[in-house]
From TrEMBL:
Source domain of life: Bacteria
A Pfam family reported for this protein in Swiss-Prot or TrEMBL: Abhydrolase_1
Source species of the chain: Nocardiopsis rhodophaea
UniProt family annotation: Belongs to the peptidase S33 family.
PANTHER family: PROLINE IMINOPEPTIDASE
UniProt-recorded name of the protein: Proline iminopeptidase
Gene: pip_3
Length: 314
């Protein structure tokens, strides 16, 4: 078995004020003169990790990571005001200008796929190619389990909605968000643990809120996720798919076959984008799963070779 690639150390980092009281934390690693690569994190509510840097060859890429509004090391942690999908996309364009990047390749896993596609649609000259995995489009059907329990084990759903009254069950994400966003609410921590347990149950784990120990960082992460879910990810019912037609950059989708929801979304995306290339891997959702990581790394290497050769292969 091939040993996993080593994650390169941070070469430089900094802060970027983006308005609304938000200040983003960013990092660079890899080759200063390499192909600029924007490595997005998942979520909403996730954060950048050193482990994800190993997805890109540090000899080929100038790897740029940033924690989105309210996330990770960005300030204020957990802040929800002026925090929408469009804000996040515009922040990425500000970061590109701040770092003097003419155009970059964008790696978007999971929620990062939404932002990558939206960025390429809004700022086409800034995006040279997209590599996506664990595809999420922010479409209503993808988060239907959170709305009405469709596709969820009945016992899990019953336990998840048990704290809510009949009126609140008409909009479960909003009811949970109210509890999660109010530290004084008597059900605040119960809601945080239930939300995390429900997420885990979607991946096949037992619904076990009592086992979850949620510190401030995790609570902030859940708050951001609930904020986006409550507002339907600030996207129409079809999610970012409606913007996909404006994406001219080459697109490679590296998708795990075991990620059922992501696989369906990957097919929908590639049907909308005939120039997209779909690569299947026997893996799940996480870009860090060894087989998926290996294919992502290979796809990025191919993109880098094409970019430095003067044209991006389709």
């Amino acid at each position: 078995m091939t040993a996993p690639a080593a994650a390169p150390p941070t070469r430089r980092s900094g802060w970027l004020p983006v308005g609304g009281g938000h200040v983003l934390r960013w990092w660079e690693s890899g080759a200063p003169g390499g192909v600029p690569l924007l490595l997005l994190h998942g979520g909403p509510g996730g954060h950048s990790t050193r482990a994800h840097r190993a997805l890109a060859d540090p000899r080929r890429f100038r790897v740029i990571q940033v924690d989105q509004r309210g996330c990770g090391a960005s300030r204020p942690r957990g802040e929800l005001a002026a925090n929408t999908t469009d804000h996040l996309v515009d922040d990425l364009e500000r970061l590109r200008a701040h770092l003097g990047v003419e155009g970059w390749v964008v790696l978007g896993p999971s929620w990062g796929a939404v932002l990558a596609l939206a960025l390429a649609a809004r700022y086409p000259r800034a995006v040279r190619a997209l590599v996506l995995s664990g595809v999420f489009l922010g479409a209503r059907e993808e988060y239907r389990p959170l709305l009405d329990g469709r596709g969820v084990d009945a016992a899990v759903w019953d336990r998840f909605v048990a704290p809510l009254d009949a009126a609140e069950r008409a909009d479960v994400p909003a009811a949970y968000a109210r509890r999660i966003h109010d530290p004084a609410h008597p059900d605040h921590m119960t809601a945080v643990r239930n939300w995390l347990a429900f997420d885990a149950a979607q991946g096949g784990a037992a619904f076990a809120p009592s086992r979850i120990r949620a510190g401030p960082g995790l609570v902030a992460s859940v708050a951001v996720e609930a904020h986006y879910a409550r507002h339907r990810f600030f996207l129409p019912a079809e999610g970012v798919l409606g913007r996909a037609g404006a994406v001219a950059a080459p697109v490679t989708v590296v998708q795990g076959t075991g990620d059922t929801a992501g696989a369906a979304s990957a097919r929908r995306l590639c049907a909308e984008l005939p120039h997209a290339r779909l690569r299947w891997v026997e893996a799940g959702h996480s870009a860090l799963e060894p087989r998926l990581a290996k294919r992502i790394r290979a796809s990025l290497a191919g993109v880098a070779a094409a970019v430095t050769g003067g044209a991006v292969a389709r």
